[in-house]
Specification:
This protein is of the alpha+beta class and about 150 residues long. The chain has one domain. The protein contains three helices and seven strands. The chain has a four-stranded antiparallel beta sheet, with helices on one face. A hairpin with a 2-residue loop joins strand 3 and strand 4. It starts with a helix and ends in a 9-residue tail after the last strand. The mean pLDDT is about 85.
Length: about 150
Amino acid sequence: MLAKLLADRFKLKLHRSSDQIPGYALQVAKGGSKLKPVADDGEDHRDTVRFTNTGMSGQGVLMRDLARFFGGKLGLIAVDETGLTGLYDFDVHWRVDTAQPAADLPGADPREPLREAAIAALESQLGLKVVSKKVTVEMLVIDHVEKPSASEN
């Protein structure tokens, strides 16, 4: 319904594409995953995630969603390469080193201390490592768009 509205009002035309870009892959670390699978009790436990500067917790989360959410919160493109299926509960905590001088340098990303702390905690507490690599991402490409047509009310 929304797609039809956008096509009608804005003459929007788009297509899906995929490309390889620099990003990060979530993988199982050497010691194996420490995630807790969700108990199959017939109730819906899916997809609750909370992220703060000191930790992240989730209930009923798919690994592809964890990768996307984690990456998004840290300003990274991240994909799931764990091979883990099913839903998982987790609770991970970290401490950000606010005394790192690199964050004060011109052009430095102020999220870097948080990224480093969160990535280290994921590996030590959940058995998941974050690896820098080229990743394949799906995207929507806008081929054409116009100013909206006048409302017909």
